[in-house]
């Protein structure tokens, strides 16, 4: 398998460090708010890597942190504390916020068929690990104490910028966020390992340390948690592209200075999901969450499908229109799979292996999911029996995780007992009853959607809702029930 390694800026053959295990670390969410679908693009693509490594036979151990302390609004350790900000916003304690949004994150992941990593570790669980690392960095002169904080001294490194495909503007994180630079720093890129009470008097969570009562910086979390569970080396580290600098650069600086040797071999960064007017945000414009997609009638797996249609190393633009197209294509795909007959024939091994070969070649080439999706469509065209096609689809879906077999089986069942079939569009009621007036409105809503008149479609949905009728979009149609 070839993976693009952003540390070397080359596609490289993936060779694990150890014969019996692959060690992978993923930067987890900061649990001060819901994840937006941009964050979830990163987790979906990392999930594909996770699943494909297992599919290819590797014994994978994957660790992810939950950032519940230390992440400030600027990644350059300046600005407000994100968790504190969330707690104030909702008049709750920091731990209540952390619990609520951690649960919300995993609930979103479940809806998107994102596997939970083998180890999920909240940052607040590993204070001793950070203190151990920081103490050694202080002893060996890589860290210094100034103005109440412990900083990593980047001037002690021979080489600091590992992911140096960034321009000067990208490196100005602190300045860009509109916050003052920290005058305690000896060098512009020095970063905080440990904050003490001198900063954020109202900090909720604090621990004793050799440098005073305080809390860890954001970057040290990932080094500490990774070493706690995966030891002194790592095969793959992943995250969104904004994590590359300064977060991952700083992780490398402190980990390698602490260990005295190379830490991680492959770095995988997922490019951003953007909106038409730029960066996705939790505070400006529409806050795009999985729940919002569901409220608007989309299947979260149609969003997963949308993500898989493009390569993780290309920025992706989100628009409702793009998602409509993905939902439509996803529904059609399910309908085509539902039309296959499970009882048709026996496994045609030669045909299966040739389809699988194409699928694996796509993913072996730096996780080319759009080609893997093409390989999936090709299955529908191969001249073999339906049993073999369904067998191949089920096999590929171990990696793609689009719920294809389950959804197609459900669709087959629904088609059997469907109440009304009008052209390509299916309307079913949960109770099995039919109602001409409701069905007419649902069809009018569908027509409005087709004409991209979403305001009208939403109006009809609201009108039905007010009358006690709930709509759920299903593959190729709508299901309704009286509330
Ligand atoms: P956070 O919760 O802010 O720490 O971010 C969680 C993950 O989402 C990190 O890996 C980020 O790099 C990633 N991320 C943030 N914004 C986006 C975006 N617009 N598109 C894709 N990934 C993102
Ligand atoms: Zn991290």
| Unreliable stretches | 171-179
| Total of helices | 17
Main sheet attributes: strand count, strand direction, barrel closure: 5 strands, parallel
- What gyration radius follows from the Cα positions, in whole Å? 25 Å
Helix content: 40-55%
Say which molecules are bound, naming each kind only once.
adenosine monophosphate, zinc ion
Widest sheet: strand ordering: 7-4-3-12-13
Query: Looking at CATH, which topology of the largest domain would you report?
Result: Rossmann fold
- Name the CATH superfamily classification of the largest domain: HUPs
The CA-CA distance between the termini, in Å, is: 51 Å
Please indicate the count of domains.
Answer: 3
Average pLDDT confidence is: 90
Structural class by secondary-structure content: alpha/beta
Would you state the CATH class of the largest domain?
Answer: Alpha Beta
Number of strands: 20
How much β-strand is present in the residues?
Answer: 15-25%
Shape, please? globular
Quick structural overview:
The chain is α/β, with parallel strands linked by helices and 483 residues long. It has helices spanning 37-55, 82-90, 94-111, 127-139, 168-171, 173-176, 218-230, 244-259, 290-295, 300-308, 320-338, 349-364, 369-381, 386-400, 404-416, 436-450, 454-466, and strands spanning 2-5, 10-13, 22-26, 60-66, 72-74, 78-81, 119-122, 143-146, 149-152, 191-196, 214-216, 234-240, 264-270, 273-275, 278-279, 316-318, 420-422, 425-429, 469-474, 477-482. Zinc ion is lined by residues 27, 222, 247.
